[in-house]
Amino acid sequence: MRRVCATLLLLPALGLAAAPAAAQQTYPTRPIHIVVPFPAGGPSDVLTRIIAERMSADFGQGVVVDNRPGANTLIGAQFVAKAEPDGYTLLMAIDSTLVMNQYLYSALPYDPVNDFVPISLTAKTTDLLVVNAESDVKTAKDLIAKAKAEPGKLNCGAGTITTKLTCVLFGQKAGIDTVLLPYNGSAEVAHGILTKSVDFVFDGPSAVLPLIKSGDLRALAKLDGRLFPQLPDLPTLTAVTGVELGDVAVWLGLVAPRGTPAPIVDKLAAEVAKILADPQVKARTDAAGIYPVSSTPAEFAAFIKQEAARWPAVVKSSGMHFE
């Protein structure tokens, strides 16, 4: 009799344990929301909508893109950090969300390390060093020589936290004194260099590439060694100048609230890898100036850790700080 009673007492507990496991196996059973911490229309929004469209078709559930812009991605990140860890609220984070913000703010409303679980990298831009086509600077080597001849005179324009810090890092590594001219996004950066309001810029290709193709701007170098089909003969900054900045790029990645079950994280990572490997998806992203990559959750976690180690000294020397 006691054995029967003990068994009966165990049944509710076994049922509770089985319920989450069953939910993970059948995931998703309702719409997934992917929060984009930027306004609609930008590169991260475009990429997220491409992923959401295919994910919805594959999973047979709606995938909603939820734009929550503001405060250098703090608003969207805080929202997802506090969401239920069930796989139904995700964040398309940018590098500053998970790395730079912790060094730029006295206090964050989220913990970039402990509040999220990495799913997969989704994109990594090829950043370009660009001048106006009418500039007397023809190469990256010319730019450094001019900056050394005119210390404190040349302006470096940038529109994201990463590219602003790249201006600072470039100055340090090249041994030049330039002035950072901050902009609010790539559209302003492109306008600034087009109107000669700034001497040179670092930016991804989404806004500047059409102006390079039209002959209005001149690309001097790229910041990594990946093939860049749109400008196949463009050299790397290191090859031209010997200045090594490391693999600097603005990147995006999908994360979930900490505590999201591993089987759900793995299923999402596999789905992202499948989507981004599709040639049709790649053609759409390349046309938008977005360069997709994917990773396993473990690879993405290691990548975040690596990135977090490279920027604190640069942030400190830049003087950038937000309350």
Describe what this molecule looks like in 3D.
The protein is of the alpha/beta class. Helices cover 47% and strands 17% of the residues. It is built from 13 helices and 10 strands. The strands form 2 sheets. It has a 5-stranded mixed sheet, with helices on both faces. A 5-stranded mixed sheet has the order 7-6-8-5-9, sandwiched between helices. α2 links the parallel β1 and β2 (63-67). α2 packs across α10 and α7 (186-194) runs parallel beside α8. The termini are far apart. Residues 1-5 have low confidence and may be disordered.
Question: What share of residues is helical?
Answer: 40-55%
Q: Give the averaged pLDDT, no decimals.
A: 90
Give a quick account of the main beta sheet: strands, pairing sense, barrel closure.
Answer: 5 strands, mixed
Radius of gyration: 23 Å
Number of strands: 10
Brief overview:
This protein is α/β, with parallel strands linked by helices and 323 residues long. Helix content is 47%, strand content 17%. The strands form two sheets. Strands 2-1-3-10-4 form a five-stranded mixed beta sheet, sandwiched between helices.
Q: Which terms would index this structure?
A:
globular; 10 strands; five-stranded mixed β-sheet; alpha/beta; 323 residues; 13 helices; single chain
